[in-house]
Fold this protein.
Amino acid sequence: MQKSYFRIRLSKFYFSDLKGLSVELTYKTAGVDIKAGEETVKKIKGFAKSTFNENVLSDLGLFGGFFEFQKNVYAEPVLVSSVDGVGTKLKVAIAMNVHSTIGQDLVNHCVNDIAVCGAKPLFFLDYLAFGKLNPETASSIVEGFSVACKQNGCALIGGETAEMPGVYQNNDYDMSGTIVGVVEKKKIINGKRILKGDVLLGFVANGLHTNGYSLARKVLEIFSFDQKFDDLELPLGEELLRVHKSYLNLITHLKKEADIHGFSHITGGGIVGNTKRIIPDGSDLKIDWTAWELPYLFKLIQKTGSISDQEMRAAFNLGIGLIAVVAKDEVDKIINASIALNETAILLGEVI
């Protein structure tokens, strides 16, 4: 269900301008276009419905989304939820007038956050806020939500679209998303089984994902988004808009093939900051920073901005989007399972 709160209308009243003329004040003259909201809802209904499955009980337009939970599938089901945004990657999308992928970024980011806990995503809810609502832009964003929801096997069952003049500039918008998933209690992955000597295996990212854009944009503002570099496959702007990779399929496969002690999704805070969230107190990480080739985009950012290694490691994923923590005798299983999915497991270091 994609809701719109444009149905609320301010009461009409009159005020006098400096010339003494009476001017009728309406919601639209205050900056909120109810018709644009209604048009947006019409455009996005099909995208939301395309993600529905047999567990979605509600139709579009109600005040809440209904999702039937199949308790008989789990002995001790635990719901797992996460909420996030995409940061200032939005500024790149807005500047390039490309809004069809930013929704995919948000869904995949949220899915990864619960997948590393062992959870299967069930449903997703979105929030969109505009300075001035453009139905075509909103429709493109929600289409991105629907594409990623279908790819990750979850339903887009709810959302809010707000027009907020005075808070955002006309062409600006912001978004957040909430994901809810489920995991069997005994299969929760929370790092409590991580031991000294466990190995860190990394899996590649396909770009900055959704973190570090404030620094990256500041550094790269001397270039145009259509500028090409010999070592980049796409023009700079398109490289910056590469969709945040979903690791759900890889995580699901690895859980079946090996005994995983922990997963970390590498977002803000980098490899160390995120992986330390799951290792036991008193433990630390030993990272071999030469174990993989730094992708050119990160080299470009570092060189152009004269950024230290320490700052780069704290702000960016540096080409590693997911880390699996396993016992040494599980490494071969992980490597073989990864190859089957055309993924490469990189030995990054260990828990000390």
Observations:
- The radius of gyration is 23 Å.
- Confidence is low (pLDDT under 50) at residues 1-18.
- Residues 13-187 form a domain with the 60s Ribosomal Protein L30; Chain: A; fold (CATH 3.30.1330.10).
- The chain has two domains: 13-187, 199-351.
